[in-house]
Amino acid sequence: MVSKMKLLMLSDVHQFGGKWRQLFDAVVAKKPKITAIAGDLYPKDKGIRCQVNFIPKLRKYAEKIREYSELVFITGNDDNSLTLPAIEQGEKDGLWHCVNDKVARIKGLDFAGCPWVPDYPFGYKYWTTRESPECSRICPTQYGDPVILNENNKWETINDLKTYFRSKKSILEHLEETAEKIEDPKRTIWLIHAPPANLGLDVCAHGERVGSYAILKFLKDFQPLLSFHGHIHESPEYNGHKWVQKLDNTFCVQPGQLDRKLYYVEVEIVKGKISGMKHSIYGESRYEFS
Is 263 helix (H, G, I), strand (E, B) or coil? Predict the structure, then answer.
């Protein structure tokens, strides 16, 4: 393991198309050893179906970032599932590490990922699933019919959402199966798109808290070095600017992503331990690090 390194971590780059350029500029300025994105990679201003056209731009940004930093990411709930073959090809070409449901050793740290989220009001359901095998909750508010994309990049209606969820692994099962591949939780950083419940990292603009209890349980039991989340862009703005919370020995981070400025967190790691954190908008963490 590198004795001292800086990580640049963020999520939800899709919030504004120009944020990929800002990310490259931040990497050049900060020179992190590793740049990590916890899901929602592609701009969606032209719709999710059009995201397949963003892959060439993603490759160009990755090529530029690679000159300064290793790039690791997961996908998120607003990412077109048909881009997965291109993501796999980019990984084979050495442009990035995608840790969807798997683990990658990068500079002595294990990065693991979970792109799955609990059900929400929005129609695109490819990345949504049950919290746990026992919980098959469907969001009571739905904006239109639930859909997935077929192989022709056309919307296809899901006729029975509960049966659809039951046909898929739950979030907890995905997490636990990936964790079996990890030797030491204390040197593991998890990229999990959805935030955990009960930590104040999941606050919507209207006040509802929508975090995952399965993710909370997993993190409490597994105790990684760090977990990094996104999904609820506005949460830090509506929870008193809280973007990092400690869960026993694990630091859980959700930087948010609003407006046109890039939101990210710099994490300093010395000899396998976190020595500092700084948010690009909100400043230094309130926690003291040993």
Answer: coil
* Domain 4-284 indexed as CATH 1.50.10.10: no
- CA 129/CA 164 separation, integer angstroms: 8
Asked if 202 contacts 209 with a C-beta cutoff of 8 angstroms, the reply is yes
Residue type at 48? I
Q: Alpha helices of the chain — where are they, by DSSP H?
A: 19-30, 55-66, 84-92, 161-166, 171-179, 213-222
Single-letter code of the amino acid located at 116: W
CA distance 290 to 104: 27
What pTM value is reported for the model? 0.98
Length of the chain: 290
Sheet holding 188-192, edge to edge: 103-106, 109-114, 188-192, 226-228, 250-253, 244-247
> In terms of Cα–Cα distance, which of 230, 279, 278, 236 is closest to 73?
230
Would you give per-residue pLDDT tens digits along the chain (290 residues)?
678 999 999 999 999 889 999 999 999 999 999 999 999 999 999 999 999 999 999 999 999 999 999 999 999 999 999 999 999 999 999 999 999 999 999 999 999 999 999 999 999 999 999 999 998 889 999 999 999 999 999 999 999 999 999 999 999 999 999 999 999 999 999 999 999 999 999 999 999 999 999 999 999 999 999 999 999 999 999 999 999 999 999 999 999 999 999 999 999 999 999 999 999 999 999 998 86
180 is written with which tokens? 């079996």
**Cβ 229 vs Cβ 250: under 8 Å:** no
Q: CB-based burial of residue 187 (10 Å sphere; 0-12 exposed, 13-18 middle, 19+ buried)?
A: middle
